[in-house]
Amino acid sequence: MPTPIDPTSLGFLLAENRNQPMHVAGLQLFEKPADAGPHFARELYEAALDTEEIAPLFRKRPSRSISSLGQWVWTDDAEFDIEHHVRHSALPEPGRIRELLELVSRLHGQMLGRERPLWEAHIIEGLADGRVAMYTKLHHSLVDGISAMKLMQSVLSTDPDRRNMPLPFDARAVRSKKVREPSARDLTSVPMDTLRSAMGLAADAGGLPAALIRTLNKGVKNEASALSFYAPKSIFNVNITGSRRFASDGWALDRLRAISKASRTTLNDVVLAMCGGAVRNYLIELNSLPDTSLVSMVPVGLKSRGSDSEAGGGGNAVGSVMVKLGTDLADPADRLAAIHASMKAGKAALESMTPNQIVAMSALGMAPSLAIPMLRLNGVVRPPFNLIISNVPGPRSTQFLNGARLTGTYPVSIPMQGMALNITCNSYAEDMCFGLTGDRRRVPHLQRLLVHLDSELTALEQAVGA
Amino acid sequence: MPTPIDPTSLGFLLAENRNQPMHVAGLQLFEKPADAGPHFARELYEAALDTEEIAPLFRKRPSRSISSLGQWVWTDDAEFDIEHHVRHSALPEPGRIRELLELVSRLHGQMLGRERPLWEAHIIEGLADGRVAMYTKLHHSLVDGISAMKLMQSVLSTDPDRRNMPLPFDARAVRSKKVREPSARDLTSVPMDTLRSAMGLAADAGGLPAALIRTLNKGVKNEASALSFYAPKSIFNVNITGSRRFASDGWALDRLRAISKASRTTLNDVVLAMCGGAVRNYLIELNSLPDTSLVSMVPVGLKSRGSDSEAGGGGNAVGSVMVKLGTDLADPADRLAAIHASMKAGKAALESMTPNQIVAMSALGMAPSLAIPMLRLNGVVRPPFNLIISNVPGPRSTQFLNGARLTGTYPVSIPMQGMALNITCNSYAEDMCFGLTGDRRRVPHLQRLLVHLDSELTALEQAVGA
């Protein structure tokens, strides 16, 4: 039964083109169980191909025809072919993380075909250390990045003895009640109906950005608010190409916590300080550091203010804070302090915002890919911000898939026109996992950022005496 | 220095979309030399990355801007990044040909990004038998399929002791004089200027199909000619999707020659008979065999008729013959005889054609992707033909790359709207190599055709007593 495509989801489909694929992904690394045979990856792949029933989210594809009166609708793929979606790949010798990231970079640069359900899962073998990787890619019209990570993690178990476990596209995963099938409404914490009525949106995608801009433009005028758009021009804020580079690594949460404790800042501040310092040193190497601080858009959770907030509804709303990363400051401790202050001011501003402003902010956080090109086209010459840094909490306990221990889980996100770099972090067990996704051409040597993140962590430890 | 894009090349760029990528490719298999270390593939890859100078064909990308007055031009890629074009891949266990074909199928379904030069070369390791594969993909706006195969083979050597050899994109390969840099004019044996003036074409791509159709429509009325379009409807003649399936294998030329000799037919007739029988049995399995024979378009070389033919120019022209494949006949020998007669009649018709008809035919052979959608849109409800079978002569002697013996060379071609299956053969040394490229969804279980090709060869041997 065809169902109409929600305007926000439709926006992601319409905003997509060769240079701006609109999918999110996750890279998970697993350590094979002690009792695994030599063909663990192949067995995982073949079990996936044998999935008896695919969850509805993974069976629907966008279509538009005379019978749908020219409207975009989701239809069930009558010719669903699991072999198209689940793939078995391998890394060339010597099978380092470098070869894995190279493969993930390539996979992430490829647009999903519209004639099929908009997802792929790649089971990847050939890591020299014996680990097996899984790269799972979903179109943003199906789920947002945070929900995608949650979905991938939701099928895992803390029980290392479980076997024959369903993967996220398996209808069993949904039926187990542990996982709720995500929908456009579930996934974004902001109720879309509220968003739409608050902004007086017509039920078509064309209307969303225009209304959004009107509200955002009001925000621009309020310099003190979390919506201030005073970011310098940077190499990240240019038009992008269709190819991607992905880099990822993890650092012990204990190290970040110690810095947080010693400096009386939050864990999130420390993550932002690592990113700020790394980006600073990266840009210095490229002789491209702006004089004033880069500004990051940072999505944050907001406590519901009940009837006080139209956006709040019954649950939690997602807002965004514009954080100055202190890239103009040479001292790591100064940067951390500046970030802490900027985040605090941004959150306070968010608290004082009108419901309409929060709704606009939520929309920006939820659908920056829709909003950014609009902002650029609306006479804001300077970028509204320079990059997006998200920090998504993940599972605190060790997770297993068919006895294979999850050793790391890294979000792969969406660079956009005017926003060539995205950093998304995912905490897991004892680590903070960083996923850096950039345009291959506009963010040269992206993998250097990993080196800088590592040295920045050490520099922060020394600076605050952790 | 930007140069205008030839209308034919531009046609391939404009005809391209997600469901119809317009690139051709070749798959080459190499046996490592006896003295090769364990990292032969990686060394090949790293040497390729170190290429000092890239040949101009492989450096140019299409662009359109105000400075080119809105015209499409080729520009040199100022930010050329060899790592984007040359890639190192591996096959998952168990590393059979099946895993290789699966990877090639996926690679072939991916559109080349317009922001870069339109080619990729993949060096693939992980075959269980130790061989190394190379999949080289070029956009049809750069070269046609035949020229692509010739280009890939041109850099090889009969000398197994040569090392440090250039790959096709290496400027050294062009400078060695053994290889001429292909251009739109060189590559198609039909002089484009002649083609254009004969058909009164305006210098834009929009004009080409319209003029072509006028000439082709004349041909349709001449039932006896090689242009007769009386093909039945078949499962291959439907709209296609963006994903591909590729299958390939080779058979000893001696076996084909023995059948040709015993039946007094040509080697090409035997190739067509293998294809006809295989397609017949494939369609029977799918319960989809049309009552009347399938018709294949078969590009053929034409001897120049000098001033007699406008298309002839000073060289050879390429024409096409519509061949009935005898898929309505149960006996392999009957099919072979029918194909022989059909091909003979088609060639005779071609000889008697007017220069304008030959030009139109040449254009159809050269650019079916442009012509077919036009034919479909011009009221010809039945397909003009059912599939395309090409047979491209390759090198007769054993070829080497850095001491690695070429064991097979398979063309990967372009399925099109209304033409979901393409078979292209390439003779090499002692083998006839078949490359079958189909739409993954519209040509189900494409690999079954390999089984049918094999049993058809045996059936032909028995039928003609070879």
Concise summary:
Two copies of one chain form a homodimer. With 466 residues, the first copy, chain A, is an alpha+beta fold.
What does this structure look like?
Two copies of one chain form a homodimer. With 466 residues, chain A is of the alpha+beta class. Chain A folds into two domains: 179 residues, Chloramphenicol Acetyltransferase, CATH 3.30.559; 243 residues, Nonribosomal peptide synthetase, condensation domain (Chloramphenicol Acetyltransferase). Helix content of chain A is 35%, strand content 21%. The first copy, chain A, has 15 helices and 15 strands. In chain A, strand 14 and strand 15 form a beta hairpin. Chains A and B meet through helix 2, strand 5 and helix 4 of A and helix 2, strand 5 and helix 4 of B. Chains A, B: This is Diacylglycerol O-acyltransferase. Chains A, B: Its EC number is 2.3.1.20. Chains A, B: It is an enzyme of class 2 (transferase). Chains A, B: InterPro entries: Acyl_transf_WS/DGAT, CAT-like_dom_sf, O-acyltransferase_WSD1-like, O-acyltransferase_WSD1_C, O-acyltransferase_WSD1_N.
Detail the topology: elements first, then pairings:
Two copies of one chain form a homodimer.
Chain A: E1 3-4, H1 7-15, E2 23-31, H2 40-49, E3 60-64, E4 72-76, H3 82-85, E5 86-90, H4 97-108, E6 119-125, E7 132-139, H5 145-154, H6 171-175, H7 184-187, H8 192-198, H9 207-221, E8 244-252, H10 253-263, H11 267-285, E9 295-302, E10 317-324, H12 332-351, H13 355-366, H14 368-377, E11 387-392, E12 400-401, E13 404-412, E14 421-428, E15 431-439, H15 448-464
Parallel strand pairs in A: 5-6, 9-11, 11-14
Antiparallel strand pairs in A: 1-4, 2-7, 2-13, 3-4, 6-7, 8-15, 9-10, 12-13, 14-15
Helix pairs in contact in A: 9-13, 9-14, 10-11, 10-15, 11-12, 11-15, 13-14
